[in-house]
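Subject: complex prediction, re-run

Hi both,

The earlier run crashed halfway through, so I resubmitted it with identical inputs.
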Amino acid sequence: MSEDEVFDAEEVYARASWKKTLFTLVLFVAVALLAVFAISMGAASLGMGESFRVVLAQFMPTEEVSTFAQVVVLQLRLPRILMAVITGISLGVAGAAMQGVLRNPLVSPYTLGLSSGAACGAAIAIVLGVGVLGPGRYIIAINAFLFSLLTMAIVYGISRMKGTSIETLILAGVAMGYLFSAVISLLKYVSGHEELREVVFWLMGGLYTSRWENVIILIPTVLILTTILMRYSWDLNAMSAGEEVASSLGINVNRVRLTCLTLATILTASVIAFTGVIGFIGLVSPHVCRLLIGSDHRYLIPCSGLIGALLLLASDTACRTMISPTEIPVGILTSFIGVPFFLYLLVRRKRRWWQ
Amino acid sequence: MDKNVRITGAIVSLCFIFLSPTGYAEETTLPSDTVTIVDGTGESVDVSRPVMRIVSITSRTSEIICALDAGERIVGRDSYSIVPKSLEDVPVVAGSSYTPNVELILELEPDLVIADSMLSDDYRQRIEDAGIPVIVETSWDPATVATVVSHLGIVLDEEDRAGEIIGFIEQYHDIVEERCADLEEEDKPLVFFEWSQPYHSGASGGINVVGDEPAKYPTGSPEWLAERDPDIILRLVSSTEDLTVEMMEEARDEILSRPGLSSVKAVEDDRAYILSSPVTTGVRSIIGELYLAKWFHPDFFEDIDPEEVHEELIQELFGQKLEGVYVYP
Amino acid sequence: MVAVKLEVSDLNFGYNGKTILDGISLEIEKGDIVSLVGPNGAGKSTLIKCIDRILKPQRGTVYIDGNEAAQLSSKDFSKMVGYVPQSTTEVFPYTVFDIVLMGRRPHIGWRVTGNDVKIVSRTLKFMGIEEFASRYFDELSGGEKQKIAMARALAQEPEVLLLDEPTSNLDIKHQLEVMNIVKKLVWERKISAVMAMHDLNLASRFSDSIVMLKDKKVFKVGDPKSILISENIERVYGVRAEVIKDSKGMPYIMPIEPV
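This time it finished cleanly. Structure:
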């Protein structure tokens, strides 16, 4: 290294940090813009202008808007857009956390059997009408949520018997996934036509049941859980070097693993309880993020969430407008939109970090 | 000066209050009244008459509404509501009751939305929250369709017409019931109904071979079927395209040539029949019932030709000719 | 009297019913470079990991500066003891700077301070890898990766540095570079270094003291000249070797044949 080369690592770091912060802000703005655009999209022919006047009318009662426009924008579109954003954030964040904890780029929020567990809970509610907390409006959502947690508990319990290694976690998760899938198949088989349809629809994932009551519960939940998870950014960074190194840096690996997995589970379970299993977002968002700004979890977690929000919101908006009046379940479209984009990034970038 | 203005103002206001009903009477429509229907789900639905704009997202009510001479009032339909042909120009706002597009429905500003039980509670709630009454009807066999027709008759203010239609249906229903009333158990053929809605073969004097099975739509193995040895096999087909004779023939041949069933009585006697859904549910379900009656007990129903009755019914309901294939053979 | 920096007292470690270390006791003085040597499976790496609290010994105590290490919180412990693993793989893409910055973890509460950044920068300079700061880890060679792992441990500002076979995967040039850095560290910053060493000759050349491990126990401890003699090598490694003196007078081992 020559002496006349002035190479300031500090400056390098400062620039990189600034670039990442900027990226996060850009994503944030992008999500906001997309949301604004999505308000004006829909099967009914309400234009941008009229949609905005509805929103404006909430703050300035002098604006005149038809009841129809109000209902469409405020009761149908707005909660759904918010739901898409919040679900996308949740899945993106959970995906990033899971990949970090399990040190594996192929992992998604559903790897530990969560999706099958949730689906099984939902199927039981739909087909048998039996809910863990008794019947009621939210029987399906509550069942799905509780079964997700149950799955995580079982998987973690099993892996503890073998020292909670990453491999046992994943394998136990896969096994539980198969078990629950079998139960779901059985339920499908004995169900009547209507129930069967409902189960299948739930499995495909969709945002058409977005209501304000759900949105209001989810927004603070997701934001709080994400914030807590972000506090583990450093630990997740260090854990990527392996358990030994992480230990040597003063991290209680088992505890961090358990905590982060639990947080990711609750995040995922909360949203899929309402939306069904929406795939691909949790897997792909962190990767897109890494290809663009690297793996520093301080930025990866929020950005992965924002990218998830973008993907899901874009997909859902397309779903409800592409072939009017039919709506495609959003889970189907997330794969179609996500895959080509992801492949493009993959092919263009030179870094291959899984070798 | 002020006092005078105030008095004048009061008098003018009073005039407006008392004269306005009559003054406005010429501009508004006839005074509206409200009826309450207890629909198929047990909900009490208040509907203000007259109902001029209807969204019907189930083919069965669309048929009935047209039959009640109120077809032009349908402003939105589901993709399956294609009979009678006059509905084809009506905008589609739902795939079926399972997948309504709420935005489009609201955009049409209907006075009433009618659906079948596939409509989820959530969707129903949303439409009702927007101030539009929703009637959900759930059963469609000949026994209960009369109730549905009568409900719609009340709502559409076409009660006389409803009465006519109900009379037609009940007339034939009574015949079937009468003639099958004295049947002994042994005389009733054992029937296997393949795929789908639990069909009330009871009324037509048949015994459903899977009547006591626990699973709702069990997939019977050929062995089990051979053991039960039904006298008659029925099959419901539906298709997104129009059904042709060839398609139905194919369906029938498929049953008759199925391996393992050759010893079954129904196959030996060639008593396999194909039905399509328009005649098994809804206002035309009486036709299905007649066909079944004829197949189960041909000697009792020699004088009745269900196809003729069908023609008569179509003419009666829609003033059209009978088109299409509905049964085979 | 030179202070005892690190002391291991009667340490036992085993798993699945197998004992790896049996009653290990040793003392490391401040500013010393100590090499742990022995054949494969002798427990060198295991001992290093037990000292670093990566593995939990069934029995025995580790003392730092006279205090029981187990009493310290993990964070405080990591501020004092740094660990360089035998090899590192990063599953995800990180820049060199990011990786070394992770070494600041024990010191970082919530935010990265300017001080942390400075320390990382200085460490990179010290290791001679500042030019790689913005490069991605997986793009670099084995020798460079090892230096980065060391930089990460150094960023912890430890008083004791534990190295697990630091030269096993390196070519000759990088081996010498790494060992010279260790020497420099000890000399300039008075860090104590404990290395599990595979290569006897490097151990001989660069250590102040050698600990020979055999049959789960400490076989012999002493300075290289007195420890690295043919009988010991034959007893511990099962190999007949000739020991000659290199240009600096340090023992140089030439293995001849297995016994």
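The CA atoms of residues 239 and 329 of chain A lie 37 Å apart.

- K.
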